[in-house]
Amino acid sequence: MTEVKRPVVAVFGAGKIGEALLSGLLHGGRSTDELVFTERSAARAAQLTADHGIPSADVADAAERADVLVVAVKPQDIEPLLDELAPVVGPGKLVVSLCAGLPTALFERRLPEGVPVVRVMPNTPMLVNEAMSAISAGAHAGPEHLATVEELMGVVGKVVRVPEAQQDAVTALSGSGPAYFFYLVEAMIDAGILLGIPRAVAQDLIVQSAVGAATMLAQGGDHPVTLREAVTSPAGTTIMAIRELERHGVRAALIDAIEAARDRSRELGAAHDQG
Ligand SMILES: NC(=O)c1ccc[n+]([C@@H]2O[C@H](COP(=O)([O-])OP(=O)(O)OC[C@H]3O[C@@H](n4cnc5c(N)ncnc54)[C@H](OP(=O)(O)O)[C@@H]3O)[C@@H](O)[C@H]2O)c1
């Protein structure tokens, strides 16, 4: 059997998200010689190599060794990195941006003509290999590049393809999404305390309920309405709670909140679109 050569992956900026991706790829079966990263701080680079066994390199060296160049710096740090990358990104490389809000057009303007760029919006559950990533092709990226990124991000969670115009909506839904669930859990723990349950017990009750509900949603394939109706008996306890949620406009508040997040993402992206 001929062995298929897997692409070497370089991560530029191994902070929280970059490290989570490297660690996920290692646990998913990639070997340390298929991975490389760059970091601004030498001390952090040494620590990452000690923790994971993955070598660090400078930008030029990493860009030369890798087939897939994953950019994972903060959006405000992108310009100096692109200055360093532009002269060293050769033909045949695929650039993958994990940077929230940065359009593929920004990379295409700054990198050599024709370099394929795929934009990814991941989320923090990547830290536990449960990321939701939405990927979009730039002007020079084809189905084969999307397939490569699907395979890569698939190691640390689920992946969907969306047109780039929907990335602001994705940012509002799944990018910020975990924060809404944390907020909800926090509020429910407060309710437990109000009802006289010790904080630690309330936390266990709610977190496990969240895990159970999420597992039913993810594995069962039933619509959330069906699942909720199944626990909402006539004149029972759940319908009393649902009535209060509706009376307080929680559904409308969530819709407005997510729309506000989408608008903010658009605003932040617009700043990078000029120039
Ligand atoms: N965290 C999230 O929830 C999340 C979710 C979706 C997308 N993202 C995106 O993921 C990207 C990274 O986020 P993060 O939370 O992982 O940020 P982070 O922890 O600050 O990681 C970025 C890392 O890149 C390093 N760096 C900056 N410029 C560099 C350069 N020129 N060369 C090499 N290394 C460089 C930084 O070093 P210093 O510490 O020295 O600055 C830092 O270690 C962002 O663009 C963000 O929009 C994050």
From TrEMBL:
Catalytic activity annotation: L-proline + NAD(+) = (S)-1-pyrroline-5-carboxylate + NADH + 2 H(+); L-proline + NADP(+) = (S)-1-pyrroline-5-carboxylate + NADPH + 2 H(+)
Binding site for NADP(+): 72-75
Keywords noted in UniProt: Amino-acid biosynthesis, Cytoplasm, NADP, Oxidoreductase, Proline biosynthesis
Coiled coil: none
Top enzyme class: oxidoreductase
Pathway assigned in UniProt: Amino-acid biosynthesis; L-proline biosynthesis; L-proline from L-glutamate 5-semialdehyde: step 1/1
Domain Pyrroline-5-carboxylate reductase catalytic N-terminal intervals: 9-101
EC number: 1.5.1.2
Pfam family, one: F420_oxidored
Main location: cytoplasm
Positions of the Pyrroline-5-carboxylate reductase dimerisation domain: 164-268
GO cellular component terms, semicolon-separated: cytoplasm
Cellular compartment(s): Cytoplasm
GO terms assigned for molecular function: pyrroline-5-carboxylate reductase activity
Organism superkingdom: Bacteria
GO BP of this protein: L-proline biosynthetic process
Family: Belongs to the pyrroline-5-carboxylate reductase family.
Function field: Catalyzes the reduction of 1-pyrroline-5-carboxylate (PCA) to L-proline.
Full protein name: Pyrroline-5-carboxylate reductase
UniProt source species: Actinokineospora spheciospongiae
Gene that this polypeptide is encoded by: proC
